[in-house]
Amino acid sequence: EDQVTQSPEALRLQEGESSSLNCSYTVSGLRGLFWYRQDPGKGPEFLFTLYSAGEEKEKERLKATLTKKESFLHITAPKPEDSATYLCAVMAATGRRALTFGSGTRLQVQP
Amino acid sequence: DAGVTQSPTHLIKTRGQQVTLRCSPISGHKSVSWYQQVLGQGPQFIFQYYEKEERGRGNFPDRFSARQFPNYSSELNVNALLLGDSALYLCASSSAGTSSSYEQYFGPGTRLTVT
Asked: Do B48 and A97 touch (CB under 8 A)?
């Protein structure tokens, strides 16, 4: 069974204090690993897709990396508007194209 | 371009009642998936439809059913509601037939409260 574990559960940063969120996964063949941002009471917003180990994607202050067992979301010099829950999900290479999500990391960036 | 739309935004139902949630995918997307998200958890897969055919089903009871229409919109039905069905119900759409078809784009969700 596909599994995704995210850590830490919650993270509080000062504005400008860089950090990383971790996503560990087990999947029977990886089709893709996905990062989403979710604001309270809203639907997840797509950020990145990573397909193979060694791949990296960047968007503004966010950078996602992928190994064979985990992915990291690096946040450089965060701002208060980066406060949200960040969700990681995997899609297996075979079968249905369903996403298996972790429970997310709640990030709070204080000014 | 409009994103994924869902209706209604909020819904309050009583135990034992039935509910229908609606979703319109992004224009040009032919696949719709439904997810349930309870507070503090990540979304959990319920159904996936492509070209009106069911392509996948998660570990949910038969009280949950769905369908997709010729215009690719979709409905999720839940019968005999239980308190535990209270959650945010998310619809996601994706394109098909291209290398980017794995990405799923979510709507704002329908908040269902069962009392």
From this structure: yes
The pLDDT-based confidence of B98 (bands split at 50, 70, 90) is low
Name the nearest CA neighbour of B111 among A40, A25, A109: A40
Instruction: Return the half-sphere exposure (C-beta side, CA atoms, 13 A cut-off) of residue B16.
Output: 0
Nearest chain A residue to B109 by CA distance is A43
E strand segments, A1-111 = 3-7, 10-14, 19-26, 30-38, 45-50, 56-59, 62-66, 70-75, 84-92, 100-101, 105-110
pLDDT classification of A92: cutoffs 50, 70, 90: very high
Residue B2: pLDDT band (50, 70, 90) is confident
Closest CA to B63 of B8, B102, B4, B16: B16
Higher pLDDT, B101 or B4: B4
Of B42, B48, B100, the CB nearest to A101: B42
Which chain A residues touch B87 with a CB distance below 8 Å? none
Give SS3 for B79.
coil
* B13 token code pair: 């139902």
Nearest to A99 among B4, B40, B104 (CB): B104
CB A97 within 8 A of CB B56: yes
- Span B29-59, pLDDT tens digits: 999 999 999 999 999 999 999 989 999 999 9
